[in-house]
């Protein structure tokens, strides 16, 4: 799945349906294309209480896939990296203990997407201030 598939069609709110947050998170974790069993073992899900929300399943899966991909990108230099996805309190939290972003790129977090310090990919990861 690529961002092109999601952005090729405008999101149509009339097509939203009710989704179980826990089920879609579990689906994302199961269907993500991991590079190895070791990478898969670095991702865990914790559900304290499920909730439903109305949304676009494909877009939601894409966001989760992208967050997992970005965290696992640094697995080789940071083998202690873990990704934890928690469902509860009417929210989904995705946390990792990877290297994080430097302070100089945080100000551009919501600017148009491009990659910095990575090779390969589509350049549709997290944004930075430089092109």
TrEMBL record:
UniProt-recorded Gene Ontology molecular function terms: kinase activity
Domain of life: Bacteria
Name of the top EC class for this enzyme: transferase
Domain Histidine kinase: start-end pairs: 1-131
Keyword terms: ATP-binding, Kinase, Nucleotide-binding, Transferase, Two-component regulatory system
Keyword ATP-binding attributed: yes
Family matches, as Pfam families: HATPase_c (PF02518)
Reactions the enzyme catalyzes: ATP + protein L-histidine = ADP + protein N-phospho-L-histidine
The keyword Protein biosynthesis is assigned to this record: no
Enzyme Commission identifier(s): 2.7.13.3
Coiled coil: none
Name the record gives this protein: histidine kinase
Originating organism: Ramlibacter terrae
The organism's taxonomic lineage, starting at the top: Bacteria, Pseudomonadati, Pseudomonadota, Betaproteobacteria, Burkholderiales
